[in-house]
Amino acid sequence: MAQLWGGRFTKETDWLVSRFNASIPFDRRLYRQDIEGSVAHVTMLGKQGILSQEETEAIVTCLCDIRREVDEGKLEITEEYEDIHSFVEAKLIERLGDTGKKLHTGRSRNDQVALDMRLYTRLKLTETDAALKELLSVLLRLMREHVDTVMPGFTHLQKAQPITLSHHLGAYFEMFKRDRLRLGDIFERMNYCPLGSGALAGTTYPLDRDYTAELLDFYGPTANSMDGVSDRDYLLEYLSALSIVMMHLSRFSEEIIIWNSNEYGFVEIDDAYSTGSSIMPQKKNPDIAELVRGKTGRVYGALMALLTTMKGLPLAYNKDMQEDKELTFDAMDTVKDCVTLFTGMLDTMTFCEAVMRRSAAKGFTNATDAADYLVKRGVPFRDAHGIIGQIVLCCIEKNMAIADMELAELKRFSPVFAEDIYDAVSMETCVGMRNTAGAPSREAMERFIADAQAYLAEERKFPGAEDAAKQA
Q1: Fold observed for domain 15-105
Q2: Are the C-beta atoms of residues 131 and 115 closer than 8 Å to each other?
Q3: CA distances from residue 439 to 362, 442, 444 in whole angstroms, order as listed
Q4: Residues whose CB falls within 8 Å of the CB of residue 347, separated by 6 or more in sequence, listed in order
Q5: C-alpha dist (Å) from residue 317 to 3, 18, 108, 177
Q6: Which among 116, 201, 330, 400 would be 20 to 30 A from 416, CA to CA?
Q7: Half-sphere exposure of 296 (CA within 13 A, CB side)
Q8: Same fold for the pair 15-105 and 111-146+156-203+224-351
Q9: Which residues are CB-contacts of 135 (< 8 A; sequence separation ≥ 6)?
Q10: What pTM was estimated for this model as a whole?
Q11: Which pLDDT does position 459 carry in this prediction?
Q12: Which residue, 19, 15, 152, is CA-closest to 79?
């Protein structure tokens, strides 16, 4: 196995140790970031006179050639190398000889891998942000379309009060909006460059860390070299944010699974996002929603694994930190796939408006409004609550809704009932009268939708995101 070290060793590394130690099977995906960081590092070395202009140009040109050849499939990253850094440097030395050996001047693998992981995480964070924005755009469209679609709101999975589908979807809009805000916060803290930290104590070479950071679109260099090579907080924060994204997706998936059941019939999932049964021909299963719900635990596991790995590590770099990659990569891929597929499923889903409305009307969701009707006519709330409870019990026994009860019968429970009770407990009134900020009325939702539209219209560009996207 090709290695970047070995001068002080007198024996070959056991092949099992080499295989156990190697990270090339999973860190090969960092080749673009490794080369990008090396180009910046060498450019800085040239600026500082540590390398000649000819050496700088030769190394940069060769690095770009290696990246292009890997991109085009002409050069394969094989497992004879210990890690992606070994691969890149070995190929450089093969092509440039002694000049290629100068690549590592003033740099350690410790600050190199710290940089690669930051650059890669920065790219994935911007991709996650873009995927969430697309999901929010679909939610915004559906909110506009369903401002008047009445449905039951639930607590304890029991029908509680009438709302609209627009209002229900608005709750998820707020969740995914907060997810994007969290990503922005993480970016602000992580966008500092560890390159130049060396193994842990910097270097005696006259490096210009500010220049390297500028070349790589960081805000500046990390402030402490030991922290620069040993910090993985940004990964923990990112995995935490991804876990919360998955929690939100899982909650939404659970509702879609319930709504898709025969007992509810609130939604019809498009055939492109459903599967059938191998034995029961009538089945149409919500597999995408179920898989999203299931994969949530996978992302949680990545967060807990890295927290556990980091909890006992002394400063500065320790080989344990190699474990920051495999599960993190898996979590990044999982969340991206889940958000993208969930967005497509939601975008093509049919909402059964008439079924939703009937469900709201039959579930005594207007009971609170009936109690409020009595309160507005001088009945103490606690008495009104008891009166409506008795009416609901009577309706259950007779298999009818409050609005189906004759006025004379209602008056047996309270003499203050009048003909206007039927308008007061209609679905339109129950929803339309709830006009406070954040409520489900058309007027309140139009204000909410206007704010949501303005939010999505805001341009938010992360430093380095455009170049990173082009490389990807």
Answers
A1: Fumarase C; Chain B, domain 1 (1.10.275)
A2: no
A3: 22, 9, 6
A4: 138
A5: 19, 19, 11, 36
A6: 400
A7: 19
A8: no
A9: 176, 339, 342, 343, 346
A10: 0.92
A11: 81
A12: 19
Helix 233-260 to helix 287-310 angle, to the nearest 10 degrees?
160
- Angle 283-286-287 from CA coordinates, rounded to 5°: 105
Residues, the chain = 472
CB 96 within 8 A of CB 62: yes
pLDDT at 5: 44
Any idea which fold 362-450 has?
Ribonucleotide Reductase Protein R1; domain 1 (1.10.40)
For the chain, which ranges sit under pLDDT 50?
Answer: 5, 9
The residue whose two tokens read 């021909």 is 281
How far are the Cα atoms of 161, 285, 376, 413, 418 from residue 380, in angstroms, in the given order? 21, 49, 9, 14, 17
Q: Are 112 and 421 in contact (CB under 8 A)?
A: no
- Taking the CA atoms of residue 228, residue 231, residue 233 and residue 235 in that order, the dihedral angle to the nearest 10 degrees is 90
Q: Are 310 and 227 in contact (CB under 8 A)?
A: no
For the CA atoms of the chain, what is the radius of gyration?
30
Would you put residue 156 in left (φ > 0), alpha (ψ -120 to 50) or beta? left
Active site residue ranges: 156, 277
Please report the pLDDT score of residue 467 as a whole number.
62
Which residue from 242, 293, 248, 249 is spatially nearest to 125, judged by alpha carbons? 242
CA angle 350, 356, 362 (to 5 degrees): 165
The CATH architecture assigned to 111-146+156-203+224-351 reads Up-down Bundle (1.20)
List the beta bridge partners of residue 161: 153
pLDDT given at position 10: 54
Beta-strand ranges (E) seen in 341-443 are: 350-351
Structure tokens at 8: 């002080």
Residue 199 backbone dihedrals phi, psi, to 5 degrees: -70, -40
Omega into 316 within 30° of 0, i.e. cis? yes
Residue with tokens 């350690």, as numbered in its chain: 108
User: What are the residue boundaries of the structural domains of the chain, listed by start?
Assistant: 15-105, 111-146+156-203+224-351, 362-450
Q: Where are the strands (E) in 60-209, listed by range?
A: 150-155, 158-164
441-467 pLDDT tens trace: 999 999 999 999 999 999 877 876 666
Residue 223, pLDDT score = 98
